[in-house]
Amino acid sequence: MPNESGAPLVLDTHIVLDMFVFKDPAYQSLRSAMQDGQVQWVATQPMLDELQWVWVRPYLAPWLVRTGMGDDSCQKIANEWAKVLGIAPPCPLRCKDPSDQCFIDLAVQLKAPLLSKDKAVLRLAARLARLGVGVGTTLASAQRRLAPALTPRMGI
């Protein structure tokens, strides 16, 4: 069971799938960081509802069988790994994909990194960085995108 004392981290649905279902090696160090309490996956109920909706999609069924996971595994993973928070208030930035807005709102509220592969979310990375939110496909890329936005601009 992961240690829940880490810095908050917002994970979009496909990152969660990559980590827990597809076991993508690119996300195993993130899973270890969550296990060690360096970071804490935070989510709202609408985010977990989306994850459950995707979890039972037919394209995922062969992967779930291959990994020995069932429909109930989604809830087990969420219960074990995610800290569920209340719905965040709307932030000033709007995403073209309304289903991704809840991820953005929570990340802005908490000033937490947001990991996503969604193009609509990634297109907002520069604007979100100005609000103190690093966005990327990995934690390292999210942190790199945030750093330039926080660096003071020098006038010559």
Task: Give the overall average pLDDT.
Answer: 89
Radius of gyration: 16 Å
Strand order of the largest sheet: 3-2-1-4-5
Number of strands: 5
Note poorly predicted spans: 150-156
Number of H- or I-type helical stretches: 9
Q: Level of helix content?
A: 40-55%
- The proportion of residues in beta strands is 5-15%
Biggest sheet record: 5 strands, parallel
Distance between the termini: 52 Å
Pairing-aware structural class of the strands and helices? alpha/beta
Shape: globular
The succession of helices and strands, N to C, reads: EHHEHHHEHEHHEH
Description:
By secondary structure, this protein is α/β, with parallel strands linked by helices. Helices cover 47% and strands 12% of the residues. The chain contains nine helices and five strands, in the order E-H-H-E-H-H-H-E-H-E-H-H-E-H. It has helices at residues 13-20, 28-35, 45-55, 61-67, 73-81, 101-110, 119-122, 125-129, 139-150, and strands at 7-11, 39-44, 83-85, 114-115, 135-136. A five-stranded parallel sheet has the order 3-2-1-4-5, with helices on both faces. The radius of gyration is 16 Å and the shape is globular.
How are the elements arranged and paired?
Elements: E1 7-11, H1 13-20, H2 28-35, E2 39-44, H3 45-55, H4 61-67, H5 73-81, E3 83-85, H6 101-110, E4 114-115, H7 119-122, H8 125-129, E5 135-136, H9 139-150
Parallel strand pairs: 1-2, 1-4, 2-3, 4-5
Give a short synopsis of this structure:
The protein is α/β, with parallel strands linked by helices and 156 residues long. It contains 9 helices and 5 strands; from the N terminus they run βααβαααβαβααβα.
